[in-house]
Amino acid sequence: MNIRKKLCTGFLVFMFICLTVWQYGGDSAGWRFRPRLRKFYYKHIAHDKMNLGKLSAYYAGLFEVTGREEYLGVVGLLREPYGKDVLVAALQSDTHEKRVAAAMGLKENSWLPKSVLDIIRMHAALKDVDALIATGQSDSLVEVFTSDLFLPGPSKVAILKALAKLDPKSMIPLAKTQLYSWWTGQQAVILLYSLGWQPETEEEVIYAYIAERSHGDILRGELRPQTFKLLTRNMDSETKRIRQSAWFALTALGYKEVLPIMAEKIDSIYQARLLLCSGNPEARKIGAGWAEENGYDVVRTAIPILDWGALK
Fold first, then answer.
1. Which of 72, 110, 120, 211 counts the most CB atoms within 10 A of its CB?
2. Longest alpha-carbon distance in the chain
3. Is 66 helix (H, G, I), strand (E, B) or coil?
């Protein structure tokens, strides 16, 4: 009887792992478990007398080893006390997907944050601007924004939007630090202009034009030398997001003279994919050459991202 029970429990765990891979999915609001997996869990596993604490620790360990955010979702669904500490720590992850998975898991557990900073991190991960405004804690919003070194772009934008309502003056200098980013710059410049801000330096003008995804004629004309110098300098930045933003901006501007520099500096599949999908034959050759040389599948890597010279 004991052997049958162990075999049965083992089979259920195996099926749960398989269904995790099969049924775990996401949408625009963040990572969520789909109904079939949730139903399977509650029907077959939640009421079994297996050690869910050990299972939670197992999935937490998988997350720590692989860094895959789906394992965080499993930890949240298991609702074990041990898992909450893992989820809270993941709220400060350097990627948006992991923060969202952690926040969704904590929400699943009806978690009560111990500090205002954790409340802000959770709402920021979920991009819940109304909840951030409801905290009324503009100083704490600024603290999270500035102290969380790798705070992902969507979380930064959510905090900026909340600060625009609570304390516009404190939002302006923070939003200016995001202008360089290809991903957060668009929202940052909209917020800045809504508060009457205008670029004060040539560098701010260039970043603002790129963030607006417009004025390409100016950046290719009278501001071309300064723009080229600024962005190629950023390609050597110690900050990954600044480097990647420069690659995107240079691709969008379509400067032909940057191609030899790209060929020299390319060092990631992220950059290779960008060039592969740019529509420029020479850029594609650079991206494909690097991908093949470093063992990547060129066909599977070629996902459309940004057209060469797309900035109007």
1. 72
2. 83
3. helix
- Contact, 152 vs 181, CB < 8 A? no
Token pair, residue 35, equals 């109904």
Residue 278 CB neighbour total at 10 angstroms: 23
Which residues make beta-bridge pairs with 60? none
Distance CA(81)–CA(86), nearest Å, equals 10
Contact present, 220 and 253 (Cβ < 8 Å): yes
Task: Locate 1 and state its tokens.
Answer: 């009887």
Residues 280/306, Cβ–Cβ less than 8 Å: no
State yes or no: pLDDT of 115 exceeds 70.
Answer: yes
Assess contact for 86 and 58: CB atoms under 8 A: no
Whether 140 shows a pLDDT value over 60: the answer reads yes
Do residues 105 and 76 make contact, with C-beta atoms less than 8 angstroms apart? yes
Helix (H) or strand (E) holding 29: none
- Using the structure block, give the residue that is written with the tokens 């057209």: 307
Q: For the chain, what's the residue count?
A: 312
Check residue 257 and give its pLDDT.
95
pLDDT for residue 255: 93
Distances (CA, A) of 61 to 55, 83, 86, 106, 128: 10, 10, 10, 18, 29
User: For residues 158 and 184, is the Cβ–Cβ distance under 8 A?
Assistant: no
Higher pLDDT, 179 or 90: 179
Residues 6+ apart with CB under 8 A from 166: 133, 136, 138, 141
User: For residue 160, which of 211, 109, 216, 231 has the smallest C-alpha distance?
Assistant: 211
Q: What is the pLDDT of residue 102?
A: 78
Dist CA 277 CA 130 (whole Å): 37
303 pLDDT more than 80: no
